[in-house]
Write a structure and sequence with these properties.
Shape: globular
Distance between the termini: 21 Å
Number of domains: 2
CATH architecture of the largest domain: 3-Layer(aba) Sandwich
CATH topology of the largest domain: Rossmann fold
CATH superfamily of the largest domain: HAD superfamily/HAD-like
Strand content: 15-25%
Strand order of the largest sheet: 5-4-3-2-1-10-11-12
Structural class: alpha/beta
CATH class of the largest domain: Alpha Beta
C-alpha cells in the first residue's frame, strides 16, 4: 500500500464497489460502514476537496449509499461528474444506450430471476453473482448483442460476476482526465485505487497525468502496488485519516 500521502498535493480518487466497499450478492445489498462516511468526509475537508469517488454507479445512487455524505464524484463510468459537494451534477456525455438494446437486455435478464439487470441511465449492468453457472451463456449472449447492430458503438466490461455495457464515447479514464483539469484537483498528483476491469481505463491514463495507481485483489501491470482486499483499503484510509489529525 502507498506510504503516507500529502493531502495538500494529492488528488485521491477511489473506486467504490470492490475497492471501498465489499462486493455484495446484489447491487443494493452493499454496506457502507458508518465510520467510512466520517473518514471520507474529513479527508475531503482536510484535502481542500480533493477526494473523489470514481464509480460505475450513478452519482445519485452514490449519494443514497453514502448519505449524509455528499462527495465529489465521477459516476456512470464517466458519463457524469460533480466537482465539489455543493456543485451540481454535470452530464459529461448525453449519450445513452439505444432503446432496442435495453429491451434485449431486459429479455436476457428475464431468463432467470437470479440474474439482476441494473439500469444506471447511461449504462446497464447484468449481475449474475447469484447464478454463476450462467456466466458462459450470458457472456456469449452479450457478445452477440454487441456484435450486431450495435457493433462499434458500445462496449462490454467484464467484472466480478457482472457484465457492464456502455457507449464507447465515455469512460472513467476520460472523465478522470477532465476532472484533473479543474480545481481543486488541478495541479495535484492523482492517486487512484481500483479493483476491476472497469477501472483499467483510469490505470491506462495515469502515466499521462504523472499519477499513481494501486489495484485491489490482484496485480495490474503499470500500477505501483496492490491492496489485498477492500478492507485493507479502508484500513489504509483510516491510517491516513489519523495522521491527518496530528
Amino acid at each position: 500500500m502507498p506510504a503516507d500521502i500529502d493531502l495538500s498535493s494529492t488528488a485521491l480518487l477511489l473506486d467504490v464497489d470492490g475497492t471501498l466497499l465489499d462486493i455484495a450478492p446484489t447491487p443494493d445489498a452493499v454496506v457502507v460502514p458508518p465510520e467510512l462516511r466520517q473518514i471520507l468526509g474529513d479527508l475531503i475537508e482536510r484535502s481542500g476537496g480533493s477526494v473523489a469517488l470514481v464509480s460505475g454507479r450513478a452519482i445519485h445512487t452514490l449519494d443514497r449509499l453514502f448519505s449524509p455524505l455528499i462527495a465529489p464524484a465521477i459516476g456512470g463510468h464517466g458519463a457524469e461528474m460533480r466537482l465539489s459537494p455543493g456543485a451540481s451534477i454535470v452530464e459529461i456525455s448525453p449519450i445513452v444506450l439505444p432503446r432496442s438494446l435495453r429491451e434485449r437486455l431486459h429479455k436476457l435478464a428475464a431468463t432467470d430471476s437470479r440474474v439482476i439487470l441494473e439500469d444506471k441511465s447511461h449504462s446497464m449492468a447484468l449481475h449474475y453473482r447469484l447464478a454463476p453457472e450462467h456466466e458462459t451463456f450470458l457472456k456469449t449472449a452479450m457478445r452477440e448483442i454487441v456484435a450486431g447492430e450495435h457493433a462499434g458503438t458500445v462496449e462490454l466490461l467484464f467484472g466480478k460476476y457482472v457484465i457492464d455495457i456502455k457507449p464507447k464515447q465515455f469512460s472513467k479514464g476520460l472523465a478522470v482526465c477532465e476532472l484533473m483539469r479543474h480545481q481543486p484537483f488541478a495541479d495535484r498528483t492523482p492517486l487512484f485505487i481500483g479493483d476491476d476491469t472497469t477501472d483499467e481505463s483510469v490505470f491506462a491514463i495515469l502515466p499521462d497525468l504523472d499519477g499513481i495507481g494501486y489495484s485491489v485483489g490482484k496485480p495490474v501491470p503499470g500500477t505501483h502496488g496492490t491492496f489485498g482486499t477492500s478492507q485493507d483499503v479502508r484500513a489504509w484510509l483510516t491510517e491516513i485519516w489519523h495522521r491527518s489529525r496530528t
